[in-house]
Each structure stands twice: as C-alpha cells, then as structure tokens.
Design brief:
Blueprint: E1 2-3, H1 9-21, E2 28-29, H2 33-41, H3 52-60, H4 84-87, H5 107-122, H6 124-132, H7 142-163
Parallel strand pairs: 1-2
Helix pairs in contact: 1-7
C-alpha cells in the first residue's frame, strides 16, 4: 500500500480501510504523490489511496483503474466509480485544502478573506476547472471550517491511535 509518507492523508486513508476491514496491507511510504504513482503504475505496489487530483489523468488514459473513491459521494468526473462506503458502510476519507490565518488576525480581515474566497469559489470557470481535476468546492464560513477541522482531527486521530502511527 503506497502512501505519500507516514501520517499523510493517503496513509491514514489506507489505515482506516485496514482498520475497518481487518485486512493487512504492508505500508510503503513515499516522498510524495509522483513516486508513489510511478511505483503503482510500475506494479511495485498494488494499491494507493491517493487524491483524485493526482490520479485523474492516469484514470482517463486507462493507465490506472479506479476501484473506488474514498469520498462520501461519487465523484462527478467518475460517476460510474463507486465509493468505498458503497461496500464498506461508514468509510469516508477525503483529501481537502483550506485557507487559514494566524489566530490573532482581526475579525474584519478574516471576514473579508472569507467573502473573497467564497466569491472566487463560486466562479463557474474555477468550479469547472476544479471539477475537471476531480475536486469539489466547499465554500463556507470560518466557523464551518473550524468545526470541520475539529471533526477531521478527531476522526484521523482515532486512526493514528488505532494504527499506532508515530512521528519519525
């Protein structure tokens, strides 16, 4: 099982799968998506829980076979590919990115940034480009994002503890 390194999203996604199914896969950490993808395509590893944004072109060209997506819902760009949750109820592991600011940033600056970022995310051209790459736009408030981060931290913390993952 390839990953982009110990404790990274692809590692935790694979460990969650292992934990929920009871199967064993040997973890092979790489230093990023490119070397993990190279070895997956070359047959040195058999599975990679990598982000769709990294693998979408390989899937489109037929060099890589998508078995499932790890998100809660099917991907708009791969509507025929099931979710892991379709056959393993409760499984969900999404890669996500967000924008943060230092804790003491004035509220009016945070609100202005949030307004402008949400406006950009509503732009049809940006939404279409992100969708083409396999991404999904999730606009929201700073409070929504804070809640999301807390939930993800708790969920991923359980996986880290269950798999006994240690920082190196």
């Amino acid at each position: 099982m390839a990953s982009t390194g110990i404790g990274n999203g692809s590692h935790l996604s694979g460990e969650l799968f292992k934990f929920m199914t009871g199967i064993n896969m040997v973890h092979v950490p790489y230093r990023g998506d490119a070397p993990a993808m190279t070895d997956l395509l070359g047959g040195q590893v058999q599975v990679y829980f990598g982000p769709l944004t990294t693998s979408i072109e390989q899937i489109r060209t037929g060099r890589l076979r998508a078995l499932a997506v790890t998100t809660a819902m099917r991907s708009e760009v791969l509507p025929d590919v099931p979710t892991v949750g379709d056959f393993l109820p409760g499984y969900e592991a999404s890669a996500w990115w967000g924008v943060g600011a230092p804790k003491k940033t004035p509220t009016e600056i945070v609100e202005k940034l949030n307004k402008e970022i949400n406006a950009a995310l509503a732009d049809p051209k940006l939404k279409a480009r992100l969708a083409d790459l396999g991404g999904t736009v999730l606009p929201g408030s700073p409070a929504d994002f804070g809640k999301f981060i807390a939930e993800e931290t708790e969920k991923r913390g359980k996986v880290v503890r269950a798999a006994n993952i240690k920082a190196e």
